[in-house]
Specification:
This protein has 22 helices and 14 strands. The protein is globular, with a radius of gyration of 29 Å. It folds into four domains: about 200 residues, Orthogonal Bundle (Hypothetical protein af1432), CATH 1.10.3210.10; about 150 residues, Beta Polymerase, domain 2, CATH 3.30.460.10; about 90 residues, Ubiquitin-like (UB roll) (Roll), CATH 3.10.20; about 80 residues, Alpha-Beta Plaits (2-Layer Sandwich). It has a five-stranded mixed beta sheet. The chain has a four-stranded antiparallel beta sheet with strand order 12-13-11-14. The longest helix has about 35 residues. A hairpin with a 5-residue loop joins strand 12 and strand 13. The structure holds manganese (II) ion (MN).
């Protein structure tokens, strides 16, 4: 690939040459911590963006990305010299800025005074950082690409910084930038960032992994080298001509995460080294899979068709693990060249094929069209959340973070509507989450669910590929009980909203009634799903309103005390209600007192 210097030499009057000359002048005399001239950093970032096939304006903006912040060049000068587009990008990167970051992992939650202040600050910083990132994402993705290239180079040169700073930057990279790259479909970048952060975050584990996996890696590599010609001959014999048969070792960071899930047993990691088969066409992908399965028996439940059902970040490939020669397992990843490029470069790959306009700023009207817009639906969703949270996040950054972490950074599943629409949800989501993701009114009116044709409880965890049918009933209100099992912030927020509406309606009704009679019911219960619904149902049947509902855990943790305030002091009514409550499963003791 041409270097920035090559390009500057070839086309001295061009945008990239002028940006290079300008940045070199601006950073003159500045050095990085490693001692090398500062200009090496923006040049490296610009070269990374060239490798991702980004346009000249982005590359020029990368060359200039630290001039406003670090050398005091006014943005207006950039605009005069390089035009609105480059100035917009430089400004975007500058605004993303250098928010100090400490992370929230392992920091105790803010309960009470004292140690909480620091955690709250860290959470606030992280939330602030994320908000900025989301705003930039929804305005022009290229700003985020520049930031990612900037971060990649900073991680590649992290060794020169003092240890405390190394840890802070590595943590931020691992918690924000790598997941962000992943969600942008930039798999390779995401993995590389995690791998670069890993030795700084887990130095001991890293050393252990290096020494204990070396033999395994070498053994697997050698094995696959002997298998490669056999696989090639096999495919060719069936008329499939692979473009590439690449042997790929798993990254240390992801190997470590996987080993944590497998009792640190290296022998149980099937994809320590995988063979990547790149073919020309989509039918060839499936043909290759068939041929491989004919010769080498596949392991059950390890065939993954990410072509028919791509990951939410648009990753496409066929994966299978088979029993190869000598009875050893091999993971195959089969894909076309175009899929491969998209998997590696993610959203950035689309800049290859389209004109130099920003799809999001233009209401999604990009030439590569609906596909990109659809893939980036989550960007729009994030923007929407950001707007929802912007009012309250200043006072409650942790809530914002929690919602972000759960909805954005966690593993995802895909469930399918009976019409075939794919709903992308975090792992562990339930039919209620699914219902709210179709529409808030569907969620509110949910009374039941069928998964793959069978009736299931509403707290059932959904799996990828489940066909979920929601049964609704007009006028039905959500149950407070659902809050105990829903996984998405969207469902939780809607349920809470409905609860607040219901409570204020009851208060209004109570205030309007002639007497202000009230009774407090005290219930000792053994908690279970549906209990609160049964209790409130029994009270409602007696045409008595609930004024408040208060639950607390009794000593020992199993029993709970629920205090329910109702709007009557009619002794007969109270007696009837108590009798009904006693009959409910899980209710151990009931009592009442007039208030
Ligand atoms: Mn920089």
């Amino acid at each position: 690939m041409e270097t920035i210097k090559d390009i500057a030499k070839k086309d001295p009057g061009g945008l990239i040459a002028r940006a290079y000359a300008f940045a070199e002048r601006a950073h003159k005399g500045q050095a990085r911590k490693s001692g090398e001239p500062y200009i090496n950093h923006p040049v490296a970032a610009a070269e990374i963006l060239r490798e991702w096939h980004l346009d000249d304006a982005t590359v020029a903006a990368a060359l200039l990305h630290d001039t406003v912040e670090d050398t005091g060049v006014p943005l207006e000068t950039i605009r005069k010299e390089f035009g609105d587009e480059v100035a917009f990008l430089v400004d975007g990167v500058t605004k993303l800025g250098h928010v100090k970051y400490r992370g929230v992992n392992g920091v105790p939650a803010t309960t009470g005074e004292g140690g909480g202040g620091r955690a709250a600050m860290a959470a606030a910083h992280k939330a602030e950082n994320l908000r900025k990132m989301i705003l930039a994402l929804s305005e022009d993705l290229r700003v985020v690409f520049i930031k990612l290239a900037d971060r990649l180079h900073n991680m590649q040169t992290l060794g020169a910084l003092p240890p405390a700073k190394q840890r802070r930057i590595a943590l931020e990279t691992d918690e924000i930038y790598a997941p962000l790259a992943y969600r942008l479909g930039m798999h390779n970048l995401s993995g590389e960032l995690q791998d670069l952060a890993f030795p700084f975050l887990y130095p001991q584990e890293y050393r252990w992994l290096l020494s204990s996996s070396k033999e395994h890696y070498e053994e697997r590599m050698n094995y696959l080298e002997t298998v490669r010609p056999k696989v090639e001959a096999l495919l060719v014999a069936h008329g499939i001509h692979p473009r590439e048969l690449e042997i790929r070792a798993k990254r240390y960071s992801s190997l470590y995460k996987k080993m944590l899930r497998h009792d640190m047993d290296m022998g149980r990691i099937y994809d320590l080294v995988a063979m990547r088969v790149i073919v020309d066409t989509l039918p060839e992908c499936y043909a290759a899979l068939g041929v491989i399965h004919e010769t080498y028996p596949p392991l059950p439940r390890r065939i993954k068709d990410y072509i028919a059902m791509p990951k939410p970040n648009a990753y496409r490939s066929l994966h299978t693990t088979v029993i190869g020669p000598e009875g050893k397992t091999i993971e195959f990843q089969i894909r076309t060249r175009a899929m491969h490029d998209e998997n590696e470069y993610g959203v950035a790959a689309h800049w290859l094929y389209k004109e130099r306009t920003n799809p999001l700023a233009n209401g999604g009207a990009a030439p590569s069209g609906q596909k990109l817009a659809a893939e980036l639906k989550w960007v729009q969703q994030l923007k929407h959340w950001q707007e929802q949270f912007s009012g309250q996040s200043a006072s409650d950054p942790e809530e914002f973070l929690r919602a972000m972490k759960i909805d954005f950074f966690q593993d995802r599943i895909f469930a399918v509507t009976p019409r075939g629409d794919v709903i992308d949800l975090p792992l562990g989501s339930t039919p209620v989450d699914f219902a709210y993701h179709i529409h808030s009114e569907v969620g509110n009116a949910t009374v039941g669910a069928r998964v793959n044709g069978a009736v299931v409880p509403l707290d059932r965890a959904l799996k990828s590929g489940d066909v979920v049918e929601i049964v609704t009933q007009k006028g039905k209100k959500p149950s407070e009980d659902w809050l105990r099992f829903v996984k998405t912030a969207m469902a939780r927020d809607h349920i809470r909203l409905a609860m607040r509406r219901k409570a204020s309606a009851i208060r209004a009704a109570a205030a309007g009634s002639k007497s202000l009679a009230r009774t407090e019911l005290k219930l000792t219960v053994e908690d279970r799903v549906g209990l609160i619904k049964d209790i409130s149902g029994a009270i409602a049947q007696s045409r008595v309103g609930i004024l408040s509902f208060h639950a607390e855990t009794a000593k020992g943790g199993v029993l709970h005390v629920n205090k329910v305030e109702i709007n009557t002091n009619d002794a007969k009514k109270v007696e009837r209600i108590l009798a009904k409550l006693k009959g409910i499963k899980g209710v151990k003791d009931v009592g009442s007192r007039a208030i």
